[in-house]
Amino acid sequence: MNRRPTTGSMPVYFFCGNETSLIEEEVKRIKNAILDAGFSDLNYHVFNPKETEAAEIVSVAMTMPAMSRKRLVLVKDAGAFRLDQQQVLVDYIKDPSPSTCMVFLAERGKVDRRSVLYREADKRGYVKMFNRLSFAQLTNLAMKETRDAGKEITKEAIEKLLLLTGNNLRIMRGELQKTILFVGRKTVIELSDVEEGVADVKENSMFDLADAIGQKDEQRAISIFKKVSEEIPVKLLGAIIWQFRTLWKVKGAVKKGVRRDKLPSVLGIPPYRVNGYIERSNKFTEDELFNIFHRLRVVDREMKGGGLPYPLSLERLILDLCS
Description:
By secondary structure, the protein is of the alpha/beta class. The protein is 57% helix and 8% strand.
């Protein structure tokens, strides 16, 4: 009988698909499984093709881990490597280091199945797809996570929750947790609880939209935009402007050497969001952010001047900002 490989036991993984939450969870599981807590910073490396040559990534992967069983090498936007760079990584995949786990991520879930890197990973069984869950799967997951919180949820309440949040796992989980907190000591979550607790889901979705743009997640941004496109255009644009203004502030504060534990008070953001904002701010140069603010001013004039229909203008903006 064949046993399922344990988390992180394979030397190489290639993750792709349109459900980024599941990919993030799997990466976290691998990290927890293979890295010794006391030395994780010494053995965890994140690379992307814009900043690093493939030969450097392979060199790190071939280095013995420091006081740990394994080293974890995360390669983002794997599909962006040039053909010659892909070949270097293909050669590594053919004979990977047994003391390293290398994880390739396809940017925004998209992957070119014809690329030599993908084909070699697929041939060796290293590819794993993470696609959006069906409503049946989301229903089962919502029931399980509600039970884990010591509560039950009615069928009508789950149906309403999914109607409001769609099949976006990240949003569904966030709204479910809000509802669990909303009901307090009640042991059963009912339809009325979801209707009251998730009443502001549209408002949150606008900020989820801005967040997706900040992560350059085009597919997720357009998906959220379609759900909230009937909202007042000024509110939508305001959420996007707020997101990029915060990214600009984060980049400036980090450049000035402001300590990470001081950023929440300096920037007015919750402590648990600091790491996410730093990561997103690193996706943009100062020049890119300057150009984005110029683009936002153009869209603002288009809306106020009655030029393009606002849904078209905003959708074009989203595509521009995610490119």
